Amino acid sequence: MKLVVDCRWVTDDPNDHVSRMSRGLISALAERRTFIMLVGPETRLEGLPNLPWELLPSPLSPTEVLTGRRLNSIGADVMFSPVPTWGGMSRRYGLVIAGGVPHARPDAPWSVRARLLLWRFPLTRSLMTRRADIIVGVSRAQQRSLLTGSATGQPVVTLHAEDTASDDVAAWRSSAQQLEQVLIDLDNSRRSAAK
User: Over the stretch 109-158, which tens digit does the pLDDT of each residue have?
Assistant: First the structure.
């Protein structure tokens, strides 16, 4: 399975919950398997495992809708994103997303703040979420909010993290094991359906 993980939400902002969650979960998953990291212009590579990576535009860029084609060209089988994404269009790979909601840092320009508002509106979050094959939440509360925006029959899985506010790899090992199994099962079901 050629796995791609969206690491473009990793920043150096210590108050960024999505970044902390991403660092912890990505590092724990890297202990279990190799994957290709998607990084963006502002991604902090020093906070990520030493793995192969592909540079893509920021997930806030209008070109994000072309991400599916780019990942098709590198032969991705499955992609995991910690945040709902517009990149599910034109894809030929499995897509698993978590329900992270990105926040603007206090010094972010207004243009960035305006684009991040899209993740706050239920309608746009639902449009992005419905493109996924499977949705994962990192808490029961997040799972409940994801269920309200999911499509009928769309699987929603809760990952069991010891501390969702931590970027410590130990707090995310159980979640990484669960996530890995979700990704493997999705890849296997897609392969079986293609036969």
Answer: 888 888 877 777 777 878 888 889 999 987 666 666 666 666 667 888 88
pLDDT of residue 105: 76
Please, are residues 162 and 171 in contact by the beta-carbon 8 Å criterion?
A: yes
Do 149 and 125 form a contact (C-beta atoms < 8 A)?
A: yes
Domain boundaries, the chain: 3-194
- Please tell me the distance from the alpha carbon of residue 133 to that of residue 186, in angstroms, as a whole number: 8
Please count the other Cβ atoms lying within 10 Å of the Cβ belonging to residue 108. 14
Phi, psi at 4, each rounded to 5°? -120, 135
Q: Which CATH architecture has domain 3-194?
A: 3-Layer(aba) Sandwich (3.40)
Cβ-proximal residues to 82 (8 Å cutoff; 6+ apart), any chain: 6, 9, 18, 21, 22, 25, 97, 98, 100
Burial 147-160 (b: 16+ CB within 10 A, else e): eebbeeeeebbbbe
CB atoms within 10 A of CB 165: 11
In 47-93, the DSSP E strands lie at 53-55, 78-81
What's the predicted TM-score (pTM) here? Answer: 0.90
Type of residue numbered 134: I
| CA-closest candidate to residue 28, choices 141, 173, 167, 184 | 173
In 87-136, alpha helices (H) = 110-116, 122-129
38, amino acid identity: L
